[in-house]
Amino acid sequence: MDLRSGLQAKYVKPPPPRFPAFRTIQHRTRSIRQEYPYGLRTPRNATRGMQSVLQAHIIKQFIFDNKPRDKSVPLEELLKPTEAEQALSLYTAMSDILWNIGEKSKAIVALPGEASHIPHSHVYFQDNVTEKLYFFEFTKLDDLQIFMKRYLPYFTENPGPGTLLYLYSAVLTRGMENMRNDLDAPKGAHLMGPHEEGSLNVITLLLTGRATPYLHNGVVYVGDEDHYAVPQFGILSRGAIGLLVWEGENEAMRSASRMPGSRLKTPATPVWVSCCCGHYGVLFNSNRELLRNYHAEKRFELHYYTCAGCYLSMTVDNRGQDEGGGDNGDQEGDRKRDDMVSTPLERLIHTKWMDAKITYHGALPASLNF
């Protein structure tokens, strides 16, 4: 695993609420005076996938969990949180993810102190974070949320090791032995890897509580005439947030085990983390009935946000499938459709709604040219 094997710490009282800057990894919300105040922002590095999962949980909270008194509140208003609401959504999302990883019975949070517990040597190279960690274990969600609220600056300080601390917390909550079993370690799977925006194994850990590299439903037994069939444990239950994946024309990556099954494609709420050619984002819709009512899927609005600060809205139209095709066949329609099909983002959406006609509202941002 591409995590520090020398991870050690002590169980003691919380360290003082400040620490020196270690590296530029952080969770950060945007000011309400800026565009997309609900959105996290991060540079393009291996933390973007992790933060996209957090972003999906935050969007779910604003749209579905924070029930407004007036059900007619438009989406634009739901996604205009105050700074206090941004902080609340962040530490609540972080707590909920860890609690789910711990099977709703425990969670472990890693925070750094001042003193090093592991000396620098030829077998351990200090990174100024790992060797200073303290672990805090919780058996009640309320206690975890109070703790995360109090020590949220550890994760949001810029510069700071916020995402690294959260990754350590997730791994420790799951447990090293469980992690190895999840990853099917004898077959060479790793939690981290040479992925520019992060590994899908980290995404499945944060979304489902298990760091499985297999995205299919349930358990599949794989073998041949020369080997006994062995189980591959995929997604065991349906979660609140889904996952859509399009890995381009790379046939080696498009194996059956790497294609999300229905438990990921059809979550409890219409919010999905998306991985399009290795680039992460969040797709969402504000109608809870979208995944419950067939008629709601005929034509609906879909929104896309990335932690690069990119936003795009579109209309997804599935009516042509029921009406024998709604295209009039003219050259303009054919040209427009051909252009859209060549867009990786549309191909990703087609993994859920095959043959849907997608109309973007406005020009495609340059950052979406994968």
From TrEMBL:
Annotated segments matching region Disordered: 321-341
Molecular-function annotations in GO: cysteine-type deubiquitinase activity; K48-linked deubiquitinase activity
A Gene Ontology BP annotation from the UniProt entry: protein K48-linked deubiquitination
EC number: 3.4.19.12
SMART domains in the record: DUF4205
Keyword Protease recorded: yes
Source organism, top-level taxon: Eukaryota
Pfam families, alphabetized: MINDY-3_4_CD
Coiled-coil regions, chain positions: none
Catalysed transformations (reactions): Thiol-dependent hydrolysis of ester, thioester, amide, peptide and isopeptide bonds formed by the C-terminal Gly of ubiquitin (a 76-residue protein attached to proteins as an intracellular targeting signal)
Domain Deubiquitinating enzyme MINDY-3/4 conserved: 4-362
Keywords, comma-separated and alphabetical: Hydrolase, Protease, Thiol protease, Ubl conjugation pathway
InterPro entries, alphabetized: MINDY-3/4_CD (IPR025257), MINY3/4 (IPR039785)
Family in the record: Belongs to the MINDY deubiquitinase family. FAM188 subfamily.
Functional description taken from the UniProt entry: Hydrolase that can remove 'Lys-48'-linked conjugated ubiquitin from proteins.
Protein name: Ubiquitin carboxyl-terminal hydrolase MINDY
Natural source organism: Anopheles stephensi
